[in-house]
Specification:
By secondary structure, the protein is mainly alpha-helical.
Length: 266
Amino acid sequence: MQNPYVVIIFASLLVIFSYIFTQISKYTKIPAVIFLIGTGIGGQFAVKYFGINVPDLGNYLGLLGVVGLMMIVLEGALDIKIHRNKIRTILAALATSIIILGVTNSLIASIIYFTQNSTFMDAFLYAIPLSVVSSAIVIPSVHTLIPAKKEFMILEATLSDIFGIMLFAFWIHEPTEGQTYFEAISLNVGISVVVSVVLSYFLVYAFHKIKTEIKFFLFLAILALLFSVGEYFHYSALLIILIFGLVLNNTPVSYTHLTLPTIYSV
């Protein structure tokens, strides 16, 4: 992209439209992300019709997607309070996300297998992204529900995202020699959980000790670091973000100095 001002214009319009659509979604009950997708599709047809030369933004979409996914999962985690009375809800969300992902993926994979004349292994891989109940759609849509149902939907959608990405990653990467898929997944999840809990408590403690106001970009940099390190070493990066958000929201340490803007609809 040659002109940096074009980037600023597009980014500013994205934030403005996101805010407008968030307000509209409160009355229409339609997720703001649906309006954003529609705006993008409509804008693409408009620029082609008027012959406007739009720079290629493909190189920036991956970065935007990573930041958006991190903040969506964190936004959901910060709405969840962990308590003994909620163990049943947590287990129900866990079971529901696994069952829905498995059943939906099997059905879609069967359709692809019989209609596209591909191997079932390939069909199963192609079906994974279509089987995930996206938290980008669910989390912005549950603000009108009662707290119990809201927490269940947030957990279910977040876990569905995490399991879908994990399944896709494990499906395209063979386990190390001598390991089964179950052993590889169990080891990956176990290490991710232990490391996430240790790092999360350390970071919450560090935030508490910092006397100056914690800026949002510092917090975003730490999140991006955790996510990127997890992805680099092929661990469950979204699980790390989820646990970090849960620990942050369920410790007696106050994080009133940490201001998170509502960006899940971007």
